[in-house]
Design a protein that fits this description.
CATH topology: Rossmann fold
Oligomer: single chain
Number of helices: 6
Shape: globular
Low-confidence stretches: none
CATH class: Alpha Beta
Strand content: 15-25%
Number of domains: 1
Helix content: 40-55%
Order of helices and strands: EHEHHEHEHEH
Largest sheet: 5 strands, parallel
Distance between the termini: 10 Å
CATH architecture: 3-Layer(aba) Sandwich
Mean pLDDT: 92
Length: 142
């Protein structure tokens, strides 16, 4: 499957280690992760080479063509919220799915639109450890 892995780029990057673990498990299962580059430590410098319009067009193309959007939503990010809303808003027609993941220890700081999501095209999971997170990925997308 083609996976769009959404994570915070410019905001709170506390979920980047979890994002790397998610990416590793997805690739282990043979999935193509379109946005793997967002997990690099130097992502901001690399993305700065593109115009904002280029990033928007590229990412919308990837969002339109992905089979599943997996969002590590532990950090505050307007971009991740936009990506999730974009895919869920068209999921009924596109048959795309969303998997929302967040660190349970940060639940108090995470939007209730994430933690309370009950959309039928979305699975939401709060994890307590990287091991728990990767086991969920194995069960859900393995």
């Amino acid at each position: 499957m083609r996976i769009y892995l959404a994570c915070t780029v410019r905001g709170d990057r506390s979920g980047v280690l979890a994002g790397r673990a998610i990416c590793e498990r997805l690739e282990h299962h043979g999935h193509e992760v379109q946005t793997k580059h967002l997990l690099a430590d130097d992502v901001e410098a690399a993305e700065a080479r593109l115009t904002e319009g280029d990033v928007f067009c590229r990412d919308l193309d990837w969002l339109t063509r992905c089979d599943v959007l997996v969002a590590e939503a532990s950090g505050s990010s307007y971009g991740v919220g936009f990506e999730v809303g974009y895919v869920l808003g068209r999921a009924h027609a596109s048959r795309q799915r969303v998997v929302l993941l967040y660190d349970r220890g940060r639940r108090h700081a995470i939007s209730r639109l994430i933690t309370g999501n009950r959309d039928p095209n979305c699975a939401t999971f709060g994890y307590g450890s990287i091991e728990e997170l990767t086991a969920f990925i194995d069960r859900t997308l393995g």
